[in-house]
Amino acid sequence: MDIHEKEPLVELEKGESPRAVRSRERWMPWTDTGLAIFYKIILSVAAILLLGYNFCCTTRPRLVATQVEGVPQFVLDYAPLTYLDTAEAYFPSDISAQITYTHPAINGSSMHEDEDEIPTLNTTNLHILNKYGENGTNIYLTSNSDITSSPSWLTGVVPNSTTGKTSNAISCAIIIYPKPSLSVTDVFYFYFYAYNQGNTVFGRELGDHIGDWEHNMIRFQDGVPQAMWFSQHNNGQAFTYPSLEKLHSGPGRGKRPINYSARGSHANYATTGKHDHTIPDLNLPNGFIIDYTSEGALWDPVLNAYFYNYNGSTNTFEGINGAPEGAMHYRGHWGDEQYPIEDPRQPDSFFGFVKYVSGPTGPQDKYLERGDVCPGNGIPCFVRDRLGP
Predict the structure, then answer these.
(1) Rounded Cα distance, 286 and 276, in Å
(2) Are 82 and 260 in contact (CB under 8 A)?
(3) CA 289 to CA 200: how far, in whole Å?
(4) Where are the membrane-spanning stretches (predicted)?
(5) How many other C-beta atoms can be found within 10 angstroms of the C-beta atom of residue 23?
(6) Predicted confidence pLDDT, tens digits, the chain (389 residues)
(7) What is the CA radius of gyration of the chain?
(8) E strands within 121-183?
């Protein structure tokens, strides 16, 4: 077809010149040619608006570079970023709020009734409970309300989609443990959730509990990251730092490793997908006890965190910039004690397993003093050099 055949034919109105027609087409979009141009303009504007929406509303948080007085910069530069599962219902929670919504109890009996000298508890003085109940180990921070009614404080705080922060909630405790004689520093990134939703096995939900402490640990040699630990239920996994997935853009690009928090249980994994954790230190894509991870909300824990130095010789914590030390020195549990089977809140057991189990102990009880990257719990330690089960 000759190129001139593509030129539109227009009908002249009485007394109108071709030049006037072109002018009319330019300013009157309801003509055939003008209407086509008008549609193109509208579509172009719509496309620009759509791109702008996608950029503003669907991009990941614009992570900012961080500096904290008294904290070695490598602790922040290589801090893990956590993807929560797309179907997560129980998000990171404020550590101090957990104390507000609970009361200490021993053997199901409230200590407020028996110990008049106990003041109002907070993250600064929580360790005074260590005077009771076998040096605090038999104490449970017990919910003030019936958890089967799903009180709102259990759901935690959804990270801000722009910054990755848990707004108005300090949900992370970062513990720095230098070992000068080895030129090694172990940095523990502890994550706190108000509720742990257990796995579903043959249609039964098992292992729920109030309070949940999970963590990553990165071992540094002269400030250079060597390997990272992912806590998972009774054990976990370790990987060399080079093998880990890293942040791909923004400040920290290529440095900050990605951590995937499992739906409900908050176990930490290096990859997305399904993870059977029936066998400790091994996760397979299928099995009986499955965790699920995916790229949901992105959480940057260091933006709302307490920072501590840890002394392995004395087993003590030193708060950095006034971080409260009482919560770290507390030896008790951060949730209710397992409900007895006769408790109406506790469903019938399932082959000896129950829905509601006891809340966990805190960071002090998580093998901070370890020789290997893995905890010294008697389970063999494998540091993998590639991602996988």
Answers:
(1) 6
(2) yes
(3) 7
(4) 37-56
(5) 12
(6) 433 333 333 333 333 444 443 444 443 444 444 545 544 554 454 444 444 444 444 446 666 668 999 999 999 999 999 999 999 999 999 999 999 999 999 999 998 655 567 899 999 999 999 999 999 999 999 999 999 999 999 999 999 999 999 999 999 999 999 999 899 999 999 999 999 999 999 999 999 999 999 999 999 999 999 999 999 998 999 999 999 999 887 777 899 999 999 999 999 999 999 999 888 777 888 888 999 999 999 999 999 999 999 999 999 999 999 999 999 999 999 999 999 999 999 999 999 999 999 999 999 999 999 999 999 999 999 999 999 87
(7) 28
(8) 140-143, 172-179
**What residues contact residue 205 under an 8 Å CB cut-off, 6+ apart?**
197, 198, 199, 355
Q: Identify whether the C-beta of residue 261 lies closer than 8 Å to the C-beta of residue 296.
A: no
User: Residue 330's beta-bridge partner residues?
Assistant: none
DSSP state of 204: E
Rounded to 5 degrees, φ, ψ at 77 are -65, -30
Looking at the DSSP assignment, which residues form a beta bridge with residue 219?
A: 186, 227
Task: Give the separation between CA 79 and CA 65, rounded to whole angstroms.
Answer: 11
262, two tokens: 């499992």
